């Protein structure tokens, strides 16, 4: 029987990701996942692949990092029939929070989580769109652990391995999965 699969049917997640040169600074190749999210086939493929990486593991909650991690985390939580917890930039959550600071290339940033968002002993999957230096994800892991939760692993659509984020998270004992990787900055 002849192969009736079209080129469109053979697309991979990375085929839906747009690259924008010199954003936000000259010399940077920005991996824009908004084009992935806008395409129903690509978005479903990404969510399915992220879920597949954690098949068979007990997970109690999905935690998403601001902001694109909210889009992925909400969809993953829905598919797994789990609750979703946002980790946000400082000052964005309305109830009592705990905060964690982390280093950026040119300064420091702070993320927060509600102090009642994770119960002691809960197993958490942390997700975001892109893994670069790992600073935001590491801060998110520390917040979950401070609340008594256990991060089972970290899932990303894109890994930028040259920036060292995967190595940083693995050094923290994390199981890290990314759908695709791009060399360079």
TrEMBL record:
Its EC number is 2.4.2.7. Residues 53-160 form the Phosphoribosyltransferase domain. One of its GO terms (cellular component) is cytoplasm. It is found in: Cytoplasm. InterPro entries: Ade_phspho_trans (IPR005764), PRTase-like (IPR029057), PRTase_dom (IPR000836), UPRTase/APRTase (IPR050054). One of its GO terms (biological process) is AMP salvage. Pfam families: Pribosyltran. Transmembrane segments: none annotated. It comes from the Bacteria. Signal peptide: none annotated. One of its GO terms (molecular function) is adenine binding. Pathway: Purine metabolism; AMP biosynthesis via salvage pathway; AMP from adenine: step 1/1. Keywords: Cytoplasm, Glycosyltransferase, Purine salvage, Transferase. The keyword Glycosyltransferase applies. It is an enzyme of class 2 (transferase). It catalyses: AMP + diphosphate = 5-phospho-alpha-D-ribose 1-diphosphate + adenine. Belongs to the purine/pyrimidine phosphoribosyltransferase family. Catalyzes a salvage reaction resulting in the formation of AMP, that is energically less costly than de novo synthesis. Homodimer. This is Adenine phosphoribosyltransferase. It comes from Pacificitalea manganoxidans.
């Amino acid at each position: 029987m002849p192969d009736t699969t079209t080129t469109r049917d053979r697309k991979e997640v990375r085929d839906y990701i747009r690259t924008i040169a010199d954003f936000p600074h000259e010399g940077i190749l920005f991996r824009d996942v908004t084009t992935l999210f806008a395409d129903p086939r690509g978005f479903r493929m990404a969510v399915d692949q992220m879920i597949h990486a954690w098949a068979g593991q007990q997970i109690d909650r999905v935690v998403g990092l601001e902001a694109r991690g909210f889009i992925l985390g909400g969809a993953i939580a829905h598919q797994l029939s789990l609750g979703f917890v946002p980790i946000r930039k400082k000052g964005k959550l309305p109830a009592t929070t705990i905060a964690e600071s982390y280093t950026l290339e040119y300064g420091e940033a702070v993320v927060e989580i509600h102090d009642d968002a994770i119960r002691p002993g809960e197993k958490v999957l942390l997700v975001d769109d892109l893994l670069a230096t790992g600073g935001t994800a590491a801060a998110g892991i520390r917040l979950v652990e401070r609340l008594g939760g256990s991060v089972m692993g970290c899932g990303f659509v894109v890994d930028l391995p040259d920036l060292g984020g995967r190595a940083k998270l693995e050094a923290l004992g994390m199981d890290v999965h990314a759908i695709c990787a791009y060399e360079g900055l």
